[in-house]
Amino acid sequence: MRQPITRFATETQRHREPKHKSTRDDTRRSRLLSLVTRHSPLVTGFSGFSLCLCVSVAGLALIVPACRRRERPLYAVIPKGQANAFWQTVHAGAAAEAKEAGVDIDWNGPALESDFTRQITIVDDFINRHVDGIVLAPNDRDALAPAIHRVHEAGIPLTIIDSGANTDEYVSFVATDNYGGGVMGARRLGQILGKRGNVALIANAPGSASTLAREQGFEDTLGKEFPEIKLVARQYGMAEYARSLTVTEDILTAHPELNGLFASNESSAVGAVQGVKGRGLPGKVKVVGFDSSPKLLDDLRSGSIDALVVQDPFQMAYTGLKTLIDSRAGRQPPKRIDLPPTLVTHDSLSEPKIQQLINPDIQKYLK
Questions:
Q1: Which of 21, 178, 230, 295 is the most buried (most CB within 10 A)?
Q2: Distances (CA, A) of 264 to 50, 122, 215
């Protein structure tokens, strides 16, 4: 290694000789070049062009981070899934608050609500991007807890919406009163069945805290307030339309005496009503669902569904992002914010406040 270093220094001095003889400046430059070549394998044995390249790269290293600085705060919004209308409305609510606050959002979530592995990967990606905050709807209360801890360790504020997780490392938890929604569904079904009969529950998926709370509220209320109503079957639709339809058909086959169904989320409600319609049983088998979508609202108008327990996903996401923006500004949001569910029936469907709730102008914010 010593020979290339000597040659590099000697050639440099030779090029300087027409202008300068042996001056102190030449000596200093020669020593400097020797030091650079000795400690930089990229330069050793190469021409002066390599030294210029190293200096240029060093300059770029200073410039690139500056180029990456964001002009406005960036917040990640991670839904449980993206396959149904509920999450489109969540997206619109977050976009509305982002527009008002002058911040940017990056929306990304798994295609299916059951894919918690993909959701964990998305959380980790946003940690690596050093976003200014994360709004997360965990699709499994246990599986997402370690990822939420990593967000906390990275110093990124996080608010949970829709469904809880087994952790307290968050700024705020914004959700529907899901247990209360299950109570509401049980009372409606008990009322229309005359407080007696056989019913079944089309549940969402294991591990989803929000729907587990609804299902618990439904079952608890049946047991306490409607002792003559028997829960004869309980099946998971796994947050999928097709699976929810299949389990509904299986229940109808196994229990031809069935009088009612409660479905704890949008996909289970769609599958339940399709199963009932497929057997020609609308009106005979009463259906109370949770959440709304254009298809479910059409079934409510036609009488295939008796009632829907409806959330406000737009307000949920709007409020969730606002808690992070308030926290960034030094304002302390509540640790928990409960949003009340609303019972929508055929008779109340045309009311202005119900129309505003079920038909938000999401395209206004998602253009």
A1: 178
A2: 67, 26, 7
Phi and psi, residue 136, nearest 5°:
-130, 135
The 8-class DSSP code of residue 285 comes to B
Alpha carbons 243 and 241: distance in angstroms, whole number: 6
Angle between helix 2-16 and helix 24-39 axes, rounded to 10 deg:
150
In the predicted model, what is the mean pLDDT of the chain?
86
Write the pLDDT tens digit of every residue in 142-155.
999 999 999 999 99
Q: What is the strand order of the sheet 173-176 is part of? A: 104-107, 74-78, 133-136, 158-161, 173-176, 336-339
Contact by Cβ (8 Å): 42, 8: no
Task: Report the 10 Å Cβ neighbour count for 93.
Answer: 27
Residues β-bridged to residue 138: none
User: Is residue 273 within 8 Å of residue 299, measured between CB atoms?
Assistant: yes
**What value does the CA radius of gyration of the chain take, rounded to a whole number of Å?**
31
* Nearest Cα to Cα of residue 233 among 214, 218, 247, 213: 247
Q: Please name which of 353, 334, 339, 316 lies closest in space to residue 170, comparing C-alpha atoms.
A: 334
pLDDT tens track for 328-363: 999 999 999 999 999 999 999 999 999 999 999 999
Task: Tell me what pLDDT residue 69 has.
Answer: 67
Q: What type of residue is 181?
A: G
Work out the burial of residue 338: count CB atoms within 10 Å of its CB; fewer than 13 is exposed, 13-18 middle, 19 or more buried: middle
Residue-wise DSSP of 54-97: HHHHHHHHHHHHHHH--SS-EEEEE-S-SSSHHHHHHHHHHHHH
Letter for the amino acid at 119? Q
